[in-house]
Amino acid sequence: MIVFLQSLMSGVLIGGVYALIGIGLTIIFGVMRVINFAHGDILMIGMYLTYFLFTLLGIDPFLSVVICIPVMFVFGALTQKLFINRMLGALPQNQILLTIGLGLIMSNTIMLLFTSDYKILTTTYSSSSVDLAGISVSEPLAISFVITAVITAILYWFLMKTDTGQAIRATAQDREAAQLMGINVRWTSILAFGIGSALAGTAGALISPTYYIFPQVGSAFTLKAFVITVLGGMGSIVGATIGGIIIGVTESMSAVYISSGWKEVVVYVLFLLVLLFKPSGLMGTSRM
Amino acid sequence: MVILEVKNVSKFFGGLAANSDVSFNVEQGMIMGLIGPNGAGKTTLFNCITGYYPPSRGDVTFDGRRMNGLQPNQVCKLGMARTWQKVRPLAKMSVLDNVMVGALCRTNSLKVARELAMEQVKVVRLEHRLNFPAGGLPIGERKKLEVARVLATQPKLLLLDEIMGGLNPAESDEIIKLIFEIKKDGITQVVIEHDMKAIMRISERIVVINSGEKLAEGTPAEIVANPEVVEAYLGSEH
Amino acid sequence: MSANLSVAGQRGVSPLGLGLFALALVALLLFPLFVNSPYALHMMILLFLSVIMGESWNILGGYAGQYSVGHAAYFGVGAYTTMILMTAKGIPPWFGAWAGVVMVIGVALIIGSICFRLRGPYFVLASIAVAEIMRLSAFNLKDLTNGAEGILAVSVPPLTIGGTVITDFLSKVPFYYFGLGLALLTIAVTWAVEHSKLGYFFQAIREDQDAAHSLGISLTLYKNIALVISAIFTSLAGSYYAIYVGFVDPNTVLPLDLSVQIVLISIIGGIGTLFGPVVGALVLVPLSEALRSNLITKALFSIGLVSESSKIGAFLQENLSHAHVLIYGVLVVIVILFMPEGVLGFVSRLVHKITRRDA
Q1: Rounded to the nearest 10 degrees, how much is the dihedral formed by the CA atoms of C215, C220, C221, C223?
Q2: What is the chain B residue with the closest CA to C272?
Q3: Which residue in B222, B225, C94, C277 is a FRET match for C261, CA 20 to 30 A apart?
Q4: Pick from C295, C279, C232, C285: which is nearest to C261 by CA?
Q5: ipTM (interface pTM)
Q6: What would the pLDDT profile of C336-355 be if each residue is shown by its tens digit?
Q7: Which member of C256, C328, C333 has the closest CB to residue A98?
Q8: Residue A202, CA atoms < 13 Å, CB-side half-sphere
Q9: pLDDT one-digit tens code per residue, A254-275
């Protein structure tokens, strides 16, 4: 029973971070209908940013989230403006290839600059855990979860209560109608990509104390992010949140009850099943 | 002889009834007009009849054969073909190649298909565009291409969905001439149109659809005189 | 809009084109007789491999419009089947490769039944997921595949026909001819598809799936035909690669990187055209080799653009050799944004513009 609760707990905690990645991807898809295959690589850049802030300036990874968010936002916004904006009307297959190309550029530039050596970010609390009613809870994961929850709440408030947020949601719901209402859809697209990138980069920052950092780490996250967003329903933030937790738990349970080698296979098989039987996901529509 | 029998066809999307209990028969060789205000459910009906999706309720019988649940390609092979409200040219392929795709429905030989295609290209008078990529054609020629392509599948029944939409009077006239020529070849036609003058000219019988239901059926004269029909069209072009 | 040269059934090959092709063919056949360098032969073999992979993918992705970004799955099936049969059962690769083909037809049909229900981006994602499942399975099914360690072939059995040894595969020359033959075969199959009912139907599906469906084309049947043809030749490429290199492991024959590279060959050269993948291979293979062997760096040094002793020079020398994937990424972005019809399309439009001006 303890084992079950333990793996459930770690699953939920990592699921929170997964949710953050998924939310970023779903916002990008919701607003721009672009399938961003560079999402995991943006996460990877967030990881490296955090790593260098820590090793060069001694800034704690969780504190560096404050720097990570704006920096990654700008990074994403620039990427959108320079490259992706030109492709908004193109075939989805070509959009995917473009983002794949951008992802390759990101991961390989990092590899060129910093080599493929695995980097580890160890903080004083990297391996500490807290005891919660007999279940060992990893401290860094717990802190990540809390920060994720806070960010998600702020994001939700932003999208629901602010004018800009509502403009973004309107664009996601119906781009043409939003344009007719005077919303600058080009700007909302840039904002959406910026926000999505900020979330991905932040997720990278949050997991940097617990994951190996290397240039290729992004691709596994990209695919997982897609599983999460498809499961939750492309364009739905609530869906991505639930999807993230589900995937986190599925992975965690599979690692414990099947084997760690097969855990990702389980996630991908789940993905195929969702695509086959409920491609619109849990939440169904592209409404944020 | 009845070639198409639509019996109590309904189509629901979630809670919305796009078609509600629609019934009518089409006699072989006739031109039947299908009219109704925008959003009345005419295209939905076409989609149900041709297998794009199955009707939620009711039966579609073509040439004595029940069509419910058949795939669009099977429907085409059986002799019922349709054009699309928003034209669908195979953009990167040439005009001739587009029509050949239709012809290849009936033959495996490229040579025969090419001959069959050439015939239809001549019928719609697009010979000057043989090798032109379909995506670059102006709207009038795209519509003609769509007709040529669908004729190449040698249909017994042709469903035309707003084939005159977006055309100027001269182009519409050409299409009307085409429709009469197609009738001469013995092909039955069901034509959805908004252009009232055109519908009155070509149709032997008209079915009126409004809000998913069949409102009226009769000869053009009967339909024009029908007060309910006139009321349904209040506000739309006439 | 000028007539697109990739239109199917374009009648009449220009005599110039035919002549050039014949000339190239003769040159390729005679090449190993005049060139002894194993390095040059190796380069040609890599070229042939790229052509085979590119042309196969092009049938499904270029003509039928189904962008699979998981073609490594078929490559891996061919590679592993051939290797396993050879090392575990002593079955020579020219039979093993056909076993690979049989396997891959089964795999392709299963994948097709899952993925073809999905449209556009979802199809791409599913194809990636499937290939990843295969790669991870190759890691985990250690009894079959030796897991992460991979399978090493000590040697290839000699090819004998009726007791006479044709070749013992000790030099690169037999690999060269096998590769050339396979590449020509794949091009020939593409040509045959392009000039048949299949070609018309594939392209109709690519251009507008629903319209094609309504014109009597069974989407399931034809998509699967395209997939199976594509998978067969990708699998043969995998078998060929496995025997040539003599080693397979999950990260060399089944990774996402490989799937992306396969797509790139057609995208960069000219998707949906007969020779597009050849052009793509001609761009990618020399480029990545030039990077790998520091040719570009040396060239920059020799023309004096960069000083060998400078920091930039040292940096380039050390790192540019690893940069070929980066260059792939840059190429993809440039091609997608500015040359969607690939190098071939770009060049042919240029030629068209020039010849039009003369007219």
Answers
A1: 90
A2: B92
A3: C94
A4: C285
A5: 0.93
A6: 898 888 888 888 888 888 87
A7: C333
A8: 31
A9: 888 888 888 889 999 999 998 8
